[in-house]
Amino acid sequence: MAQTNDPRLREIMIALVRHLHDFVRDVRLTEEEFRAATAIIAKLGQLTNDTHNEVVLMAGSLGVSPLVVLLNNGNNGATETAASMLGPFWRMHSPRVENGGSLLRSPTPGPAFTFTGHVIDRDEAPIVGAEVDVWHSSPAGLYEQQDPEQAEMNLRGKLTTDDTGTFSFRSVKPAGYPIPTDGNVVGDLLRAQNRHPFRPAHVHVLVAKPGFKTLISQIYMPDDPRLESDVQFGVTRHLIADLVTHDEPHSDDPNVQPPWYSVDYTFVLEPGESKLPKPPIK
Ligand SMILES: [Fe+2]
Q1: 103 Cα: distance to centroid of ligand 1 (angstroms)
Q2: Ligand 1 centroid from CA 164, angstroms
Q3: Could you give the CA distance from residue 10 to residue 17 in angstroms, rounded to a whole number?
Q4: What is the distance between the alpha carbons of residues 234 and 81, in angstroms, rounded to a whole number?
Q5: What is the Cα–Cα distance from 13 to 7, expressed in whole angstroms?
Q6: Could you tell me the pTM of the whole model?
Q7: 69-86, pLDDT tens digit by residue?
Q8: Can you say how many angstroms the Cα of residue 231 is from the centroid of all Cα atoms in its chain?
Q9: What is the CA(72)–ligand 1 centre distance, in A?
Q10: How is residue 234 annotated by DSSP?
Q11: Cis upstream peptide for 109 (omega within 30°)
Q12: What residues sit around ligand 1, an ion, with C-beta below 5 angstroms?
């Protein structure tokens, strides 16, 4: 370690080796278990390709990625934050949607749903002209690229906040969905632990504006039965939406059958660098 020039690398490696050795002592890892562990780590890489990332899936399934999010947002973990994991399904170049417009690009049966987001800075001033990507699963629990019945870019859109820092869209209420568990390492782990593979229903939101750290968020539906047992540990109390059920007709759209649902949520951006992540899959 003494010859490592980069101080941060030295710090990380000292802690990593200390914790790895402590872990081996703690569980008294056998030679057979060690060989099994190296095989599992090799398989995590082998299963990762352009359309699937087993390493990221495992990091979430062990609660590591949400911990990294919480430590690096909300004033470095001091306060609550709307930040959450990006997840594998974000795509660049979502089609433009006007505020109040619909995300539906093909008929998608399900309860009508409207989402209104307010984007503010730490002083509660509205952030005008922020670029907002939104994407979510269908009421059947499938993202458009997983589902031949959905049109390209269905349930996705790119919006811009208005003079009051607000964006809004109409859609259908998302459903929870299982992460992939067939023939993979994460699936083996979940079966061994008797864990279900589901993520609770959520809407993904990514907000970018120069001068602010890009906010990557997931807003959860409070009526999902698996909020307490998200397989990827993404749910925090702050991310659970205040979902309103409407039994009256929709004032803007007479075609909407009650009951329909609405969510109103405020996103606080932190000062920082505005940059977009690399899409996890193609
Ligand atoms: Fe998702």
Answers
A1: 16
A2: 28
A3: 11
A4: 12
A5: 10
A6: 0.94
A7: 999 999 999 999 999 999
A8: 12
A9: 21
A10: -
A11: no
A12: 87
Helix axes 64-72, 54-61, angle to 10 degrees: 80
pLDDT of residue 192: 98
32 Cα: distance to centroid of ligand 1 (angstroms) = 37
Distance from residue 26's CA to the centre of ligand 1 (Å): 35
Q: Give distance in angstroms: CA of 12 to centre of ligand 1.
A: 31
Span from the CA of 201 to the centroid of ligand 1 (angstroms): 8
How far away, in angstroms, is 121 Cα from ligand 1 center?
25
Q: What residues contact residue 170 under an 8 Å CB cut-off, 6+ apart? A: 100, 101, 102, 103, 104, 112, 113, 114, 253
Provide the CB-side half-sphere exposure for 203 (13 A, CA).
Answer: 32
> How far is Cα 178 from Cα 246, in angstroms, rounded to an integer?
28
Query: Do residues 86 and 277 lie in contact, with contact meaning Cβ atoms separated by under 8 Å?
Result: yes
Summarize pLDDT for 121-153 with one digit per residue, the tens.
Answer: 999 999 999 999 999 999 999 999 889 999 999
Sheet holding 101-102, edge to edge: 101-102, 166-172, 112-120, 260-268, 243-246
Four-residue CA torsion sign, 265, 66, 172, 221 = negative
Distance between Cα 23 and ligand 1 center (Å) = 32
- Which amino acid is residue 217, in one-letter code? S
Extended strands (E) in the chain: 101-102, 112-120, 131-136, 156-160, 166-172, 177-178, 198-199, 202-208, 215-220, 243-246, 260-268
Give the tokens for residue 251.
């004032």
Distance CA 157, CA 198 (A): 24
Q: How far apart are the CA of 176 and the centre of ligand 1, in A?
A: 8
Place of tokens 């939101």: 205
Place of tokens 């698996």: 226
The enclosing H or E element of 69 equals helix 64-72
